């Protein structure tokens, strides 16, 4: 395991390995999104209580789930970067943060759109909604902090520390519907309480958002590696060839 991690710590190796994975992940993302969303928005039956409005869950649930999952992945990368001083780990934190922020924004917007017909209001200071909003601010703060410091090593260290401090918000988001009396619906026990005809497209969308996250993160990571290693011979060699391979 440690040997594999150290291999990934080599910028050129990580860049080329990411390039091999990108076409497959990109194609998988398109396929899963197309099948999951068409199945969910067109062919899944209407809910007996919520009617057609429930269909927004095919965007909301995957975005909300991975908004937390991405932050957890950032925390792992931040820990590795701080403890073992791996530059690629802190670079991965920077690559993941914008994707996580967009997912969190999608979760909040779709949640508000879903809440309007269900609760009669676009927004309420519910425990789940408020803690998710705090997560959005954390993502924004991490991105701002990383870009505010010119020294990339110091910027990565500062951003990683903020990531680890913000981890405390994840259990608050997850258990908020258990710890407090909230308007937000409770846990679906890994979607087991959802009818199978609605559950399958939802799980496809969850996998699609995961695959899309990996695709976008690797694309951004490759760009960050090129910027960081721009003076290295291998990057200059790519430039002379007229493109990155």
Specify the oligomeric state: single chain
Question: Which structural class best describes the helix and strand composition?
Answer: mainly alpha
Strand content: under 5%
Major sheet details: none
Written account of the structure:
It is a single chain. By secondary structure, the protein is an all-alpha fold. It contains nine helices and no strands. It has helices at about 1-10, 10-45, 55-85, 85-120, 125-150, 150-165, 170-180, 195-230, 235-240. Helix 3 (about 55-85) packs antiparallel against helix 4 (about 85-120) and helix 3 packs parallel to helix 8. About 30% of the residues are buried. The mean pLDDT is about 90.
Keywords:
9 helices; mainly alpha; 245 residues; globular
Topology:
Elements: H1 2-8, H2 11-43, H3 57-84, H4 87-119, H5 127-148, H6 152-166, H7 169-179, H8 196-228, H9 233-241
Helix pairs in contact: 2-8, 3-4, 3-6, 3-8, 4-5, 4-6, 4-8, 5-6, 5-7
In short:
By secondary structure, this protein is mainly alpha-helical. Helices cover 78% and strands 0% of the residues.
